[in-house]
Prior knowledge:
This protein has helices at 2-15, 188-195; strands at 25-29, 31-43, 51-64, 68-70, 75-82, 85-94, 114-128, 133-147, 152-159, 162-168, 175-186, 214-228, 231-241, 257-271, 275-279. The chain is mainly β. The N and C termini lie far apart (40 Å).
Amino acid sequence: MTRIRMALKSAVLLGLGLTLLPASAERKPEWELGLGVAGIDFPLYRGAEERRNYLLPIPYFQYHGDFIKIDRDRMRGLLFRHGEVEMDIGVNGSVPVKSSDTLARSGMPDLDPILEIGPSLNVHLYYDEKRHTNFDLRMPLRAALATNFSRVEQQGWLFQPTLNLDLRHVPDNGWKLGLQASLIYSDQSYHQYFYGVAPQYATATRPAYSANGGYSGMQAITALSKRFPGYWVGGFVKWDNLNGAVIADSPLVTRRQAFSVGFSISWVLTTSNKMVEVSDD
């Protein structure tokens, strides 16, 4: 039961996890509610050799409010828009890790799930109304909150400047292709939580290690999805690269490059009678 609860918590965190130029808009239900199934395979943590995979039921929920916007890409709260610039609040997260599941962390404290939340300054660089294409620079700054769902402790900050390209109706009508590339920077507290080795946990093969803040590697994501009448399908591939990161020489980093993959299919069970204008942003 403990592993099932961890899996469900992981699915929630992963699910959280995601224009000001003249943009076309279409009328959609204000909200949609459904249920689906998702499969995902990913490293236990960034830099881990061991992997985890799940096949889990997941909720399907979309909401197009004036302030809160939730879709299959991301959840955010819009703070302001002005010209080609906007600021919103977004969330991200990482799953819990039992140290007994990974050789590098054996005997060390478990890692709680991390909820990342904070503002993002977004600049819309390009929009093609005819092709429903937009290209954005997103600059989120998020606080990392470790929680076991009974207590919350801040574990540092992350800054992740991201270039995001959305291509709609590719390769066929209704399909959406998303491409992202980002650099990650984290402070010492965040790196120490994941990659530090206190002297009492040092061994002959795992020396004590004190992490520094700074460059934390890069990520690239490709995602493809489509909303059909009555259901939604999507999948993604993520590449993670820790080469050159300040924590790359931590004894807890046993693989510097890794891929994660996932897919989901969700059935829409009910929708709002109220219709709202939804733009391509």
